[in-house]
């Protein structure tokens, strides 16, 4: 029964004093209204006769807007007058974009399209929950409603990472080209491999002359060298409890994903193989490097649903996975938090095994609020305690950084907006020095 039926009953009640026998008018009036409600319910289009399907975007980048439409087909012989509600999870940011929504009218055999605009607020998979259809009768006194019908195919919108650091990629690629040219002009050195033969020009190092090739060509030829290609780069994302900490406006894991994407795009362009591993107390995802043209797209899609877990990270498991997957010497970039408890008890015991086989970089996001607390003039007693806690946290990070440096580990500790370019700069520096 709708509000219109209740209003009809109220109007009838006001006329009862005019009846010759008011006590008899009550059941008569109620009976008439009930008959009208039953007739109106019977004449309403059955929801089971409405066929529904979804069409639209399957992926969207975080911060952008996608459109997913519900297509309704009225297969009954009665017109559909009703309300439609397309429910999504709250983080999908659903907003109905249909004139007169959610009220619709569909004639028998006709179709209607109800677009929904989605502006997600979180990365990952955002599913559609249910489609609710309410069909009213021609008098508007009653309605039929079913939530499980019409059946719609499941629909999930994958929200990809922002990848805001891609704006740094042109500058990093320019530096990479400079490194390639510098290495060739300097000649052979650590971390280089043979490139081509060319004719000798004045100023070339005579030690680069290839005498056998010169004898065959009856001309003086010199060897040129370039930085070694096909190096191995492994990005390890710590998805434990520390990755869920929000630094600024985003979780620490999102800043790590952004930095890993920039590093992967740069390393792939440099001819290196990039693998990705996400783990805490179990392996959450693993992606093996492939063709350079599809690496970034596959990596973005694989990292999109990765979420932090509220568990302690098992660095023994991560070390075992690294040693099992990477047989050759590789550059391992571990994105984690510089916390003395997690690293001191978990990473430092297994660090000698990793450092003996691979070159390690530990990349971490620090909260600028800690620095601000140490330089701010305290005005209250609480500010003094907050400053002391900040000093202690910074001192703990320095001790962890010193302990990692003893094993030859390079530490990149930066704010969230600077982590990605600094990690890529460290990669370029190691590549220029031939230390990959």
From TrEMBL:
Listed Pfam families: DUF58
Domain of life (superkingdom): Bacteria
Domain DUF58: residue ranges: 197-385
Alphabetical list of PANTHER family matching this protein: BLL2464 PROTEIN, SLR2013 PROTEIN
Name of this chain's protein: Uncharacterized protein (DUF58 family)
Annotated organism of origin: Plantactinospora soyae
């Amino acid at each position: 029964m709708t509000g219109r039926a209740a209003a009809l009953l109220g109007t009838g009640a006001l006329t009862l004093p005019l009846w010759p026998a008011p006590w008899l008018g009550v059941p008569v009036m109620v009976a008439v209204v009930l008959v009208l409600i039953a007739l109106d319910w019977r004449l309403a289009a059955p929801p089971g006769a409405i066929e529904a399907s979804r069409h639209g975007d399957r992926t969207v980048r975080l911060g952008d807007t996608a459109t997913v439409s519900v297509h309704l087909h009225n297969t009954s012989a009665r017109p559909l007058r009703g309300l439609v509600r397309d429910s999504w999870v709250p983080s999908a940011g659903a907003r109905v974009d249909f004139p007169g929504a959610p009220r619709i009218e569909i004639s028998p055999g006709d179709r209607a399209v109800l677009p929904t605009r989605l502006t997600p607020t979180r990365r990952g998979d955002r599913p559609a929950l249910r489609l609710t259809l309410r069909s009213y009768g021609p008098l508007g006194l009653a309605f039929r409603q079913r939530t499980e019908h019409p059946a719609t195919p499941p629909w999930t919108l994958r929200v990809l990472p922002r990848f805001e650091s891609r704006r740094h990629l042109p500058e990093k690629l320019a530096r990479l080209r400079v490194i390639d040219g510098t290495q060739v002009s300097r000649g052979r050195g650590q971390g280089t491999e043979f490139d081509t033969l060319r004719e000798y020009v004045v100023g070339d190092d005579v030690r680069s002359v290839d005498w056998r090739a010169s004898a065959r060509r009856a001309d003086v030829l010199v060897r040129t060298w370039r930085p070694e290609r096909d190096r191995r780069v492994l990005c390890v994302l710590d998805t434990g409890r520390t990755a869920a900490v929000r630094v600024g406006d985003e979780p620490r894991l999102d800043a790590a994903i952004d930095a890993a994407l920039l590093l992967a795009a740069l390393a792939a362009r440099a001819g290196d193989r990039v693998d990705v591993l996400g783990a805490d107390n179990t392996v959450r995802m693993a992606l093996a490097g492939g063709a350079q043209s599809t690496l970034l797209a596959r990596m973005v899609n694989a990292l999109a649903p990765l979420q932090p877990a509220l568990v302690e990270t098992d660095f023994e498991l991560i070390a075992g996975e690294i040693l099992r997957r990477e047989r050759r010497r590789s550059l391992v970039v571990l994105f984690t938090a510089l916390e003395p408890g997690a690293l001191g008890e978990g990473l430092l015991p297994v660090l000698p095994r990793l450092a003996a086989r691979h070159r390690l970089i530990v990349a971490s996001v620090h909260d600028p609020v800690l620095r601000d607390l140490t330089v701010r003039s305290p005005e209250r007693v609480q500010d003094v305690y907050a400053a002391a806690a900040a000093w202690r946290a910074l001192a703990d990070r320095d001790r962890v950084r010193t302990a990692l440096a003893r094993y030859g580990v390079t530490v990149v500790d930066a704010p969230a907006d600077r982590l990605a370019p600094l990690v890529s700069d460290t990669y370029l520096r190691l590549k220029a020095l031939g230390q990959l």
